[in-house]
Design a protein that fits this description.
Layout (H helix, E strand, L loop, with lengths): L11 E2 L5 E13 L5 E6 L9 E3 L4 E2 L1 H5 L2 E4 L9 E13 L9 E10 L5 H11 L5 E13 L8 E13 L6 H10 L4 H15 L11 H7 L4 H19 L2
Parallel strand pairs: 4-10, 5-10, 6-10
Antiparallel strand pairs: 1-2, 2-3, 2-9, 3-8, 6-7, 7-8, 9-10
């Protein structure tokens, strides 16, 4: 392993305040008997857009399992961005897909979506179940890695890393995916309306004297980061514009 300083151009602050990395993982999604649950099985260790590989067998999961929330786009400043929780997070062996391929490991999660409590969670669940979304984003602290080169086929391979965050990505960053999901019946129009109403309540500007504020206004006022409020407003505008064109 070389110095963490060589990762400085990519290091960001993760949910617990430590510097780390975030990266997308393509997932296979399977139904199971649990209500509002989906099984996420990460793909084999393939190159990401940074020409890096994350070894599935290298995941350290203890810290994440203490608070195994499933967030929307790594947003932690508001409870409305909690889409669910991981009932299971573990490393599993994966059978080879072809006769010539070798057995591998994967990061397995069973996510229970908070569909009864959060309309955003209902949308996320429907988009994943309908195959309109097929990726999650993980936040992790790299602990041990090796640099590659032309012969290895990768720039860097992470051999050991601590998982801190797991998030849905692309909700609703891709209005076309939402429109297709609505057309197919995977997402209900009523869910979009409820999500817009929820976001509006949380982002209502507080009154000058603090009078007449509901709980949502107080929460929005006390949000720790302005970027969280801006993200809420962006979500609301996207959903609103989509509803207008239906």
């Amino acid at each position: 392993m070389t110095s963490i300083s060589e990762l400085s151009d990519r290091l960001i602050t993760l949910s617990d305040g430590r510097p780390g990395l975030r990266g997308g993982i393509q997932v296979e999604i399977r139904d199971n008997s649990c209500n509002s649950c989906l099984d996420f099985i990460s793909s084999d260790e393939t190159l990401d857009r940074y020409h890096e590989i994350i070894s599935a067998s290298g995941w350290q999961l203890a810290n994440y399992q203490r608070n195994p929330v499933f967030q929307n786009a790594h947003q932690y400043g508001d409870i409305i961005f909690t889409l669910g929780k991981a009932l299971i997070t573990e490393i599993r062996s994966r059978q080879p897909s072809t006769l010539n391929s070798q057995p591998s490991s994967c990061l397995f999660q069973r996510i229970q979506f908070a569909t009864d409590a959060n309309p955003m969670a209902r949308i996320a669940y429907s988009l994943y179940k309908g195959k309109f979304l097929n990726a999650v984003s993980v936040g992790f602290v790299p602990l041990r890695w090796e640099n590659g080169g032309e012969q290895s086929g990768y720039r860097r391979k992470y051999l050991e890393q601590e998982l801190l965050e797991v998030s849905a990505v692309g909700i609703p960053a891709n209005p076309n995916a939402l429109a297709l999901a609505l057309k197919s019946g995977a997402v209900q129009k009523s869910d979009l309306k409820e999500a817009v109403d929820l976001l509006r309540r949380f982002c209502d500007p507080p009154s000058p004297a603090g009078e007449g504020q509901g709980e949502a206004g107080i929460l929005c006022q006390s949000a720790p980061q302005l970027s969280t409020i801006n993200h809420q407003l962006a979500l609301a505008r996207t959903l609103r514009d989509l509803l207008r064109h239906l």
